[in-house]
Every structure is written in C-alpha cells, then in structure tokens.
Amino acid sequence: MYSEEVVFDAGDQKLAGTMIYADNGRRPSIAHLHGLGPTASRHQVRYLLDPLAEHGYGSLTFEYSGNGDSTGVMEESCIARRMAETLAAVSLLDPDEPPLLIGGSMGCHLAASLVPTIKPRGLVFFVPAAYPGGAEHLVFDENRARAGNYADSAAFAGMREFDGDLLIIAGKHDQIVPSDVVGGYLDSARNARSTEVIWLEGDHFVHRWLPGPDWATERAAVQEALLRFVSTDYARR
User: Which residue segments constitute the domains of the chain, with CATH numbers given?
Assistant: First the structure.
C-alpha cells in the first residue's frame, strides 16, 4: 500500500486529495465524500481506507472547497457546488470500473443525488443525511438547510434509480440527523441489489470516536463489514 497527494481543479477551486493505492498499483475506483463542517478532513477515514488498500482496493479521499487544504470558503459553498466537486473527484478514478462511493453525512446526500449520473456499483453511507428539494443553492451559513427525512429530497430521488449494493452505518444517538432518515434511504432503495444497516452505540460524529481506543471492537466489526462489502461487490462485477 502507498499513497500520493494530489491537487485537482473543480470550477475555480483547487481541491486537495490523497490517492491510496493497493500494491497492485491499479487506479482506485473508490471515493470517499466527507460531510459538512469546518473540521471535516480527507484524513479522518484513513482508518477505513488503508485496510482496504492492504487487501487490494485503492481509494481517493479529498476535501471539498473550504475544508482542509482545499481552496475556498466553506460558508460560501453549497450542495450544488459540492455536487460539481464530487464529479471532478470521481473523474480521477479508474474509468474502466463503475465507482464505489463511501459517504459521510452530507457526503451521502451528494452520492445519492448523483446516482443517475455516476451510476455507482456500491454505496457505503455513514450517518447519512438528506436535505429538502430546493436546498441545492443555499449557502452553508446560518440559514442553510437542515437534515431530515424529506419526501422531495434529491437524495431519495437518486436512490430510486440505484441498483447496486447499499451498506449503512448509523449512530443510535445521532444528535444531528433524525433516525428516520435511514428509513427514508431504505424506502427509496427498493431497486438495490442488497441493503444492510449496522447500528452503533454512538453519535453523529462517527469518524471522531470510532477510531478511538474505547471502540476497538466496534471498529473492527465495521472494518470487517466494509471489507466484506467491497470484496463481495468486486466479485459481482
């Protein structure tokens, strides 16, 4: 396993990313999409992505504009801009493989909304958020849209076209996203090839606490489930 730091253009912004390669050197076909918040980082999920690379599955993790080492101001961004930035990131993946997307919170909304365009073979959602129709151009200031189980969400519309495999990891004590959002995703994913939900005894900020020493058993279970999901998904291609 080895990694390479990359910078790529998305509109007028330059986004920072890390390509994590398996020893086979193949171009990654997995992308991680982080959530909303000033501390969101491409580095937070290395505890999940590095083990995948060690088993032969490379990935890209990057930061949206206004986060981490990317240019821009987060409060001036919006869902529509992040969707465009997602497409720019996915364009770096192996063009010969349908992508697999791993999302966190808002990253799940982005991945789901882009299903008709990206046509991912698999989706892994951590504490998934969904936002109402018409929220795409609301900037991320104090008046930004709030996560909820909205029937008109673009995420749910996208999921109705999804025919791949879906894995959701949710927190029983999520203080940001209502628990029925998971049900909204499952109800919309009726054409999915498979669905699985893992509930953890934690809050919304899963990538803060799951890597910690007090969560070793749960972390190992999630890593195992993720590896099983990815390897099974590859075998089904």
Answer: 2-235 (3.40.50.1820)
